[in-house]
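Hello everyone,

My group is preparing for a crystallization screen and wants a predicted model to guide construct design. The compound we'll soak is zinc ion. Before spending weeks at the bench, it would help to have a computed complex in hand. I've included the protein sequence and the ligand's SMILES below. Output in structure-token form would be ideal because that's what our pipeline reads.
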Amino acid sequence: MTCTFLTCPPVMSADGDPLVAFFLAEGYDLDRLRAEHADDGSGRCRACGGPQSGRFRWPCDTRRAADRAVERQRADRDTTS
Ligand SMILES: [Zn+2]
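Reply:
Good plan to model first. Here are the tokens for the complex, ready for your pipeline.
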């Protein structure tokens, strides 16, 4: 198994998506992340799309992974409670 991050996340079962697993393992503030990576009103990500780049279509990879991580947390909560 290859790890693309500096610290290998202990959770590797998040649908095989390393970014989702990373967010969950690191305890990221997903609400804030999702708020930051929001549609800027023209179909681009506010956080990823800079003045010159403008090629990061929304939802970006980060936003999609954060959304999946939230779903994942909810699913875990539902099954464990
Ligand atoms: Zn983004």
